[in-house]
Design brief:
With about 350 residues, this protein is α/β, with parallel strands linked by helices. The chain has helices at about 140-150, 165-170, 190-200, 240-250, 260-270, 310-320, 320-330, and strands at about 25-30, 35-40, 55-60, 60-65, 65-70, 75-85, 90-100, 110, 115-120, 130-135, 175-180, 205-210, 235, 255-260, 280-285, 300, 345. Helix 6 (about 310-320) crosses helix 7.
Length: about 350
């Protein structure tokens, strides 16, 4: 398989720059894999496509304000982008930096006029290890300080600066655990009212956590799909979620993943007997056509970038030709694409 096999034409005007006025006011494209049927609906009606006993697994990660602006002690401007925490205390992070000259180990930084940091040895190619020093909030909480001084990292295809409203609209209503640098965007459509209608129908809603990393945005730089390597992301699956999912699989009930992040976490954490394991760790799982799903039966997801790993995952579940046909129809019907765009339900 070649990366270009997953290409499609997308007019720039269909890339959503702002969210819908209301979370559940987006459109919904419904794909029936068995009958190869595509239909259009509104997201607010998504409960129509769920059954009593379905288990909906959601990602409760919360996006942190990961962009920090400042300058080197020598005077040059620098932007630091937090990618992943490296220690329990939160003082050392894997980061990307942007400046006129790449900072060397030992370089001292002053960010947002109050946060001091030092560039350390180490880091993958293009990344830096950076230690933040002593200027946390009164309780010693680094994430609380980030809420004050950091900037929200909107995706690169949103060609505007983040606004105050993005602080909450680029979070799911069930976000709880800070650590992501990108939102699990399929969850952005869900309101508490939609969730209540699902619960009233007998749908069991369970959380897991996957802190979405930069890999969700980074382009694939190889020609062949099998040559691509995913970036690692931290996940956690509670025991209760594992129990609910395993019981559903035993009883023949559907497991519906809310988003590609929940999908990868579930499929990574299943053992050879098909049993989902609770726990936490790092996953760099790459799902592409040919993969046999062991847990996920249905998927709620947004529309994804051409030639992206997310489009490959969706194609693995529903079939590449069927998915690209649906994307072509979405373009013709002027659906809104990507993070703040419309939604798809594959069952």
């Amino acid at each position: 398989m070649y990366v270009t096999d997953f290409d499609y034409e997308l007019p720039d005007e269909l890339i959503a720059q702002y969210p819908a006025e209301q979370r559940d006011a987006s459109r919904l494209m419904v794909l029936d894999r068995q009958q190869q049927k595509i239909q259009s609906d509104l997201f607010v009606h998504i409960d129509r496509y769920f059954k009593c006993g379905d288990v909906l697994v959601v990602n409760d990660t919360r996006v942190i304000p990961a962009r920090l602006l400042g300058h080197k002690e020598s005077g040059g401007k620098i932007e630091v982008f937090l990618v992943r925490k490296l220690d329990l205390e939160g003082e050392c992070w894997l980061c990307l930096t942007r400046s006129s000259k790449s900072p060397k180990p030992g370089t001292r930084l002053l960010l947002a006029d109050r946060l001091k940091a030092t560039v350390l040895e180490g880091g993958e190619q293009g990344y830096r290890h950076i230690r933040f020093e002593g200027c946390f909030d009164a309780d010693g909480d680094f994430l609380a300080l980030l809420d004050e001084i950091g900037k929200l990292p909107l995706p690169p295809y949103i060609s505007r600066e983040p606004q105050r409203e993005d602080r909450e609209r680029y979070q799911t209503t069930f976000s709880a655990k800070p650590g992501a640098v990108a939102a699990p965007t399929a969850g952005l459509h869900f309101t508490e009212q939609v969730l209540e209608r699902l619960r009233a129908k007998g749908v069991i809603i369970c959380p897991l956590t996957l802190h979405v990393g930069l890999g969700t945005f980074l382009p694939i730089r190889v020609e062949k799909v099998l040559d691509h390597r995913m970036h690692g992301e931290h996940y956690q699956i509670p025991q209760q979620t594992a129990d609910e999912v395993n019981l559903a699989k035993q009883q023949g009930r559907r497991v519906v993943a809310l988003g590609t992040t929940a999908t990868r976490t579930l499929e990574f954490s299943v053992d050879d007997q098909g049993v989902l394991q609770a726990g936490d760790g790092m996953t760099d799982m790459f799902i592409y056509p040919g993969y046999q799903f062991k847990i996920v039966d249905a998927l709620v997801t947004n529309f994804h970038l051409p030639q992206s790993t997310l489009l490959m995952l969706v194609s693995a579940l529903a079939g590449k030709e069927f998915v690209l046909k649906a994307y072509q129809q979405a373009v013709e019907e002027k659906y809104r694409f990507f993070s703040y765009g419309d939604c798809m339900f594959i069952h």
